[in-house]
Structures are given as C-alpha cells and as structure tokens.
Amino acid sequence: KIYIADFFFTTCPAICIDMGQNFQHIQEVYKEEEKFNLVSHTVMPETDTVEVMRAYGERMGAIKGKWHLLTGEKRELYRMARREYFAVMEYGTSFDDHDFIHTENVILVDANKRIRGFYDGTSDLDMDRLIDDIQTLLNYK
User: Do residues 69 and 58 make contact, with C-beta atoms less than 8 angstroms apart?
Assistant: First the structure.
C-alpha cells in the first residue's frame, strides 16, 4: 500500500494540531481508496499509551484500518524516524532520555516501501501537493 507517515504526540499544542487536521482531510479524500493508508507514530510513548492513542484516534475521527496510530519503544520509534523515514536529520544524538523529536515532516511512501516525498504537514500548499502526488502514485500501474 501507499502511505503517508508522520511523528507527533497527542498533547502537542502546536504543529501537531495542524498536522492532525491535515491528516483528517487527506483521510477524507482517500477514505474509499484501499491502496492508501495513513500512519502516525508517537514521539512520546511514555504518555501516548495504546489507550491514549485510541482516544486520540476517536477524537480525530481516524477510520480503523485506514489511519494507524502507533506507539512503542521510544528508542525504536526514534531510530525509525531518523534512519528509515529520515523525518529529522539530526546528527550526533544519543537516543537518551532527553532526546526529543518534534517535526512537521510528512513522508510519502510508495507500495514498494520507497520514500517518494517529504512535505510540511502544517502547510496547506504542501498538503495539496501531497494529495496530487498520492494520486499520481495510485494512477501508476
């Protein structure tokens, strides 16, 4: 499946609000598209438990099976953000208890697990570009 991924936390009072609203919009645009999903990873797993993420998903109108809200071990989440999704490009971090990722980056991943684009999840213009790029990937045979 084609999907978009982001990294957020449920109590974020800033960029995560805009990002969540933009994910709601994209979910609405592609809610009937079986080849597309949304994946949101928490960056605060110590507070964003499964129950907290479930409640957040309900508040945001996340459709089960369409918008996946993920938590896990902080070290693994941060490793994925940096080394698999390249959501942040911070060098020399030690992955200690004081490490914190806070980014507006949204990543588009194609059906072959290749990163196809990075977008500012707080920008309406970038979200329009993302919707166009998702459609291009969906139309590709």
Answer: no
Counted residue by residue, the chain has a size of 141
Q: Which residue in this structure is represented by tokens 């109108």?
A: 61
Beta bridge partners of 3: 37, 109
The reported pTM is 0.90
Calculate the dihedral angle through the C-alpha atoms of 101, 37, 30, 6, rounding to the nearest 10 degrees: 0
Assess contact for 19 and 106: CB atoms under 8 A: yes
pLDDT single digits (tens) 66-97: 999 999 999 999 989 988 999 986 654 555 55
**In this structure, is the dihedral angle defined by the CA atoms of residues 51, 53, 59 and 65, taken in order, positive or negative?**
negative
What are the residue ranges of helices labelled H in the chain?
Answer: 15-29, 50-60, 74-79, 124-139
Q: Angle at which helices 50-60 and 15-29 pack, to 10 degrees?
A: 60
